[in-house]
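QA checklist item 7 of 12: single-chain prediction sanity check.
[x] sequence parsed
[x] length recorded as 141
[x] structure emitted
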Amino acid sequence: MTAFGFAAMFCMRFTPDWADFILVRVAGFSFVGAGLIGAAGWLGALIDGTIGWLVRSIDGISNGAVGTSIAWIIAAALAGLWIGGMLPGRIFSYDPPDWLVIAGLVVPSLVAMVPGRAGDAFDTVITAGGQALTNAVGGLF
């Protein structure tokens, strides 16, 4: 799924704007699908360890400064930005940068931290999109 996402981003160099609109969303949901499946081996361990360290560090700093954890707020903001970037241009006119599209690898893990109905809504949207593209690509191969 990760390779499929990078291939879609690479193809954007040679396609017209209307195709880029489709390819960037295909790439984004490919990365989310890869994040849902989870990277195996050393790459998965590296991603899990890095996210765990980052969340613990942010929580430690925010608990000392503000008195509460803010890592879930940052995760919710990133998930909202990612979802907004994947919406059609008529609804939310935003051309997502490459880093945000590739961040789809870690968005499913980060959304799990968001509490309440907002977390459930983010999780539903992201999981449905990632699973749909994973099933479509799995059907092709």
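[x] summary fact logged: The chain has seven helices and no strands.
[ ] second reviewer sign-off
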